[in-house]
Specification:
mainly beta
C-alpha cells in the first residue's frame, strides 16, 4: 500500500494516523495538494471517520485523494467545512457510501472532484450538501471519459457553482442516476442548475430519481443541461420538476445532434423558462426527440416557444404510447424572444412530427399566440394517427388545437381534435 499524508496540513489530526509514513512526496506532485492520499494501485477503505475544518489546501487540492489506478471505499464518514475539495480521485475507482460531504469549497467540485477516466459510485444514504465551486460542479465535478453512478438514497442538495450547481460532468462520460437519488435546490449562476453534462456523453435517469427545485439564475437548463451528440433517457418513475431557468429550458435543455427519450411513467412538470422557450424541455437542432409509455410533460411555463416542449429545426419528434402533454402555458413573450408559439409542443422548421398511439395533448394555453396544442413551423411533415387526442387547448391568434406553417404536409388518420379553436394552416 502507498499512502501519503501532508503533515503541513495535518495539524491536530496527526494522532489519528500513527504508523503512517509522513511523506507527501510518495504519491507524486498532486498529493502535495492533498491532506490524505492513496496511490500506486492501492485498495483502501476510509471508514467511520470525520475530517473537518482543514485549512491551507491549495485551490485545486483536496482533503482525501485517490490516485494512480487505486480503489477506495469511503463509508460512514463526514468530510465537512474544509477549504478545498472534500474528496478527489484521478484515474481511479471510488465508492462513497453513507457519507456526508458538506460545506467544502474549491475551484472545481466543492464536494467531490473525479478526475479523467475515473469511476465514481455515490450510494446508500450519502448526502452532498452546501458545497461551493467558484467555477463548475458545486457538489460533484467529473472530468472527461468517466463513469458516474448515483443511486440509493443519495441526496445532492443546496450546492452552488457557475455551471452545474449540483453536478457537472465533462465530455465522453457515462452517467446513471437511479434508485431514490435526488438532485435538489442547487443553483448555477450560468447553466445547469441541478446538473450539466457535456458533449458525447450518455445519461440515464431511471428508478425514482428526482431533479427538483434547482435554478439556473442567469442562464439555461434549470434542472439539467445536456451537450451536443448526447443520448438522454428519462425513465422509470423519475421526475424533473419545479426547476427554473432565467432563459430557456426550465426543466431540461438539450443541445444539438442528440437523442432524447422520455419513457416509463417519468414526469417533467411545473418547470419554468422565464426568458425563452421550452418550459419543460428545450431541444436543439438535428435531434431525435420521443415521449412514450405513460410519460407526462405537464404544468410547465415558458416565455417563448413551447410551454411544454420546444424543438429546433431539422429534428424528428415522436409522441406515442399513452404519453400526455397537458396543462402547459405560454406567457406573454419576453422582449428578448421573437416568438411564443405552441403551448403544448412547438417544433421548428424542416422537421418530422408523428403523434400516434393513445397520446394526448390537452389543456394547453397559448393565450398570446398560435398553436394551443401543437405548433409546427414551415417545411415540415406532420402525421397524427391512431387514437391520439388533441383536446381542450387554447390559442389567442390561430390554431387552438394545431397550427401548421407554410409548405408543410399534414396527415390525419383517426384523430380526435375537439373543444378548441380550429386547426390552422398558414
Amino acid at each position: 500500500m502507498q499512502v501519503a499524508v501532508n503533515i503541513a496540513l495535518l495539524g491536530r489530526f496527526k494522532s489519528y494516523f500513527k504508523g503512517v509514513t509522513w511523506d507527501k512526496q510518495m504519491c507524486g506532485p498532486l498529493a502535495q495538494q492533498c491532506l490524505f492520499t492513496v496511490c500506486g494501485n492501492t485498495r483502501a477503505v476510509f471508514h467511520n471517520s470525520t475530517v473537518r475544518d482543514v485549512r491551507g489546501i491549495a485551490p485545486y487540492g483536496a482533503v482525501i485523494c485517490v490516485l494512480g489506478r487505486s480503489t477506495m471505499a469511503i463509508t460512514n464518514t463526514v468530510v465537512a467545512f474544509n477549504d478545498g475539495t472534500g474528496i478527489k480521485t484521478e484515474q481511479s475507482i471510488i465508492t462513497i457510501r453513507n457519507t456526508l460531504v458538506m460545506d467544502n469549497s474549491a475551484v472545481y467540485g466543492g464536494g467531490v472532484h473525479a478526475g479523467s477516466h475515473s469511476t465514481v459510485r455515490v450510494v446508500g444514504n450519502t448526502t452532498i450538501r452546501n458545497n461551493t465551486a467558484s467555477q463548475d460542479g458545486g457538489g460533484l465535478y467529473v472530468e472527461t471519459g468517466s463513469i458516474v453512478r448515483v443511486d440509493g438514497n443519495t441526496s445532492i442538495t443546496h450546492n452552488r457553482a457557475v455551471e452545474g450547481g449540483g453536478v457537472l460532468v465533462r465530455k465522453a462520460s457515462k452517467v446513471i442516476l437511479g434508485g431514490n437519488a435526488s438532485i435538489t435546490n442547487n443553483n448555477a449562476s450560468n447553466a445547469g442548475g441541478g446538473m450539466s453534462v457535456a458533449s458525447n456523453s450518455s445519461i440515464n435517469i431511471v428508478g425514482n430519481t428526482s431533479i427538483t427545485h434547482n435554478t439556473a439564475s442567469s442562464g439555461v437548463g434549470g434542472g439539467l443541461i445536456v451537450g451536443t451528440n448526447c443520448t438522454l433517457t428519462i425513465a422509470g418513475t423519475s421526475s424533473i420538476s419545479y426547476n427554473n431557468a432565467s432563459a430557456f429550458g426550465g426543466g431540461v435543455c438539450v443541445e444539438h445532434n442528440s437523442t432524447v427519450s422520455i419513457i416509463g411513467i417519468a414526469g417533467i412538470t411545473h418547470n419554468r423558462a422565464l426568458g425563452g422557450g421550452g418550459g419543460g424541455v428545450y431541444v436543439g437542432f438535428y435531434t431525435k426527440f420521443s415521449v412514450a409509455g405513460n410519460a407526462t410533460i405537464k404544468h410547465n411555463i415558458a416565455a417563448g416557444d413551447g410551454g411544454g416542449v420546444c424543438v429546433l429545426d431539422n429534428s424528428d419528434v415522436t409522441i406515442s404510447g399513452n404519453a400526455g402533454i397537458t396543462h402547459n402555458t405560454i406567457l406573454q413573450p419576453n422582449p428578448r424572444t421573437s416568438h411564443a408559439r405552441g403551448a403544448g409542443v412547438c417544433v421548428n422548421d424542416k422537421s418530422i412530427v408523428s403523434i400516434n398511439g393513445n397520446a394526448f395533448i390537452a389543456h394547453n394555453n397559448a393565450s398570446a399566440s398560435s398553436g394551443g396544442g401543437v405548433f409546427v413551423a414551415k417545411n415540415s411533415n406532420v402525421s397524427i394517427a391512431g387514437n391520439a387526442t388533441i383536446t381542450h387547448n387554447n390559442a389567442l391568434v390561430a390554431g387552438g388545437g394545431v397550427a401548421i406553417g407554410p409548405d408543410s404536409t399534414l396527415s390525419i388518420i383517426i384523430i380526435i381534435i375537439m373543444l378548441q379553436g380550429p386547426l390552422q394552416t398558414q
